[in-house]
Specification:
With 344 residues, the chain is of the alpha+beta class. The chain is built from 12 helices and 14 strands. About 1% of the residues have low confidence.
């Protein structure tokens, strides 16, 4: 077992555990979800899913048997990295490739392999990630309902050995619920992108090139500034982490066997109102402009998009797209933009 994981398994603090902790609170009722989203900061929720039979199975050491009992035999996605990676899932030497392989297997077979490898020296690192439970194990969803979210927000299962998922972010809000083992989320605010040395945007998910557990500050000096803003959530079975969209997170599974269910929701904008696609369009439109013209557009975005107060001197009914648009005006603007983009 690698030294950081040995220390964690023994309950000894590591260098990242001394960072400020994410605050914890009792889980709110469903009506309190909007308050969490509006606050826009991570929070650990206690008691959110204490009624789940899956959690009871995990606390009794019977989660693999519980999951096998619900398995319908369909193939599941399995990721495997060689022992030399120390379980640190990320890029390979070529940033177009990753240091792990993907294959399909029956869930029961994958669980048996994960358990068999637990504690072995020089063993590969195996994990099942992002398993869509509504499609693969609908009885799990029926038996373990999530009261905080709408019923159409589907859960996904993550189960494996002691692995590390390199720093990345999500376009959705994330609710992560730990069933077995301990997990550490190292979190950075969304505005730390320049200090995290993120890889290519067209090879999703874009990952940080920095190993936060052993950072090379000569190669990545700005990462020290990112660490100054970081906070940590240490999650035990029964804990849930609400993670607002765009927060960067590095996730470490700290036990020989770990399991988590998560929910993603909120990224439902489409077409010309989808922020990520509009950002990519902005790369095409502005990156090659002369510096003076980029300065103009930077000021336009800051005034009218981010500050949002650049039209205060215009009567409200005459602000056009700079004001509060009626549904018909939004539809007309969307159609105008679709027509413009079709010409390119």
């Amino acid at each position: 077992m690698a030294e950081p994981l040995r220390r964690a398994a023994a309950g000894e603090p590591g260098p990242l555990d001394g960072l400020p902790r994410v605050s914890a609170r009792a889980a709110p009722p469903a009506a309190g979800l909007a308050e969490l989203i509006e606050a826009g900061v991570p929070v650990v929720l206690k008691g959110l899913f204490g009624h789940w039979p899956a959690l009871a199975a995990g606390q009794a050491g019977q989660l693999p048997a519980y999951l096998k009992g619900l398995d319908r035999g369909a193939p599941v996605p399995v990721m495997e990295a060689p022992a030399r990676t120390l379980g640190k899932f990320g890029y390979g030497t070529d940033l177009r490739e990753f240091n792990f392989t993907r294959r399909s297997a029956r869930l029961s077979d994958a669980l048996d392999r994960i358990l068999r490898l637990a504690g072995e020296g020089n063993a590969p690192h195996v994990a099942v990630q992002m398993l869509p439970l509504a499609a693969q194990m609908p009885d799990f969803v029926a038996q373990n309902p999530m009261p905080l979210l709408p019923a159409d927000v589907a859960p996904r299962l993550w189960v494996g050995g002691p692995v590390h998922t390199r720093t990345h972010n999500d376009r959705d809000h994330n609710l992560a619920c730990v069933l077995a083992g301990r997990r550490r989320f190292l979190l950075f605010p969304p505005d730390q992108v320049a200090n995290l040395y993120i890889g290519p945007l067209d090879n999703p998910p874009p990952l940080s090139l920095v190993d936060p557990e052993a950072p090379d500050l000569v190669r990545f000096p700005r990462f020290a500034d990112a660490l100054a803003t970081a906070r940590v959530a240490l999650l035990d079975p029964g804990d849930a982490l609400f993670l607002p969209r765009y927060w960067w997170h590095h996730v470490t599974s700290l036990s020989p066997f770990n399991a988590m269910v998560n929910y993603w929701w909120g990224d439902d904008a489409l077409g010309v109102e989808q922020p990520h696609d509009v950002f990519l369009a902005a790369l095409l439109a502005y990156r090659r402009l002369p510096p003076a013209e980029r300065g103009y557009w930077r000021a336009m975005f800051e005034t009218h998009v981010f500050a949002g107060d650049g039209a205060a001197h215009i009567p409200p009914g005459q602000r056009g797209p700079l004001g509060e648009m009626r549904a018909s005006e939004r539809a007309a603007l969307r159609q105008r933009l679709r027509t413009a983009f079709l010409k390119s």
